[in-house]
Amino acid sequence: MTDASWGLDTLALRTGQRRTAEREHAEPIFTTSSYVFESAAHAAECFANETGEHNIYSRFTNPTVRCFEERLAALEGGDRAVATSSGMAAILSVCLAFLQQGDEVVCSRSVFGSTVGLFNRLIGKFGITTRFVELADLNAWEAACNERTRLFFVETPSNPLCELADLAALSTLARSKGVRLVVDNCFCTPALQKPLALGADIVVHSATKYLDGQGRMVGGAVVGNHKDMAEVFGVVRTAGPCMSPFNAWVFLKGLETLRLRMDAHSANALQLATWLQQQPGVARVHYAGLPDHPQYELAKRQMRAFGGVLSFEMAGGRDAAWKVIDATRMLSITANLGDAKTTITHPATTTHARVAPEARLAAGITDGLVRVAVGLEDIQDIQADLARGLAL
């Protein structure tokens, strides 16, 4: 049971749980593939229901997964969430639900490399065109839109340059064109940003990142209104990109501490970004929490804090960037983010390696760019580890 007056932390701890006859305090993991019906008539009744409310088969109905879905929907302020096997599966499910041959998508140029690949190489094979535009240029979004446009897709803040879209303005444009606005809220989570409250139609997540918070599981989710989520649920039910019960249980545990962790990530990241601006060899720092960020005022209006991901440009290009990365002893050299442990990567040769070089440069991802997903270690230890490479 959820109380409408509950705050974010209470929602993150209490929403969605239905205790069984065993009166357990923690949410159980329902590791079952199927469910037993009371009679043939009961089975027919459950199979005829399209809402996902009745347990039928764990590809699309599972109590642990449902608990995660209800909790995340409450945190995002949506009617319903649909859990998926990964963040990319969440985006794919949205595409399969709302696009068909001849349709078009307008997407920010500043998105995760796999998102670019999904729209260009996979969705494109089915006669769907994607037009990539500058994230913050509202005129470019409008110019790219036509009568065949069905979706706007945006990450904000973007990966890895921390650029922002004005969600209120973009959602107004989308509504005027009869287009759904889909927002990847992975970097902020509902603890820092509520895209649906700013006018977005659908939110997608890689639950693998901050919703988990400790780099343990892969998963995704889509959140929105009842009508749209019924379409997404139909994709997951039929095609099967579903979340496992065990993964859902781990994500439930992650949600319990989400706001506390996001505040701590944000505080560490702001300190690190400010420190990096003073370091030799660092040409530029990309972080929305810095007062010299071109969208700093928008960030203050749109986000409760600025998140845990930043990137910085090394003046010496790839050689200098790799020296910084290779000199670390504590930071984890991995492309994942949203972990309690700080991670570091070279986007041009990892997360965006499969993006065409010209498209990569157009998105501002240079060979000298280093991305850091700032963890929860003591900030002085993170700084000291990066200082090894910066001093070379």
UniProtKB/TrEMBL annotation:
Annotated catalysed reactions: O-succinyl-L-homoserine + hydrogen sulfide = L-homocysteine + succinate
PROSITE patterns, per database record: CYS_MET_METAB_PP
Gene Ontology BP, a term: transsulfuration
Keyword annotations of the record: Amino-acid biosynthesis, Methionine biosynthesis, Pyridoxal phosphate, Transferase
Any one Pfam family match given in the protein's UniProt record, by short name: Cys_Met_Meta_PP
Family to which this protein belongs: Belongs to the trans-sulfuration enzymes family. MetZ subfamily.
Oligomeric and partner information: Homotetramer.
Protein name: O-succinylhomoserine sulfhydrylase
Organism: Marinospirillum alkaliphilum DSM 21637
Gene, per the UniProt record: metZ
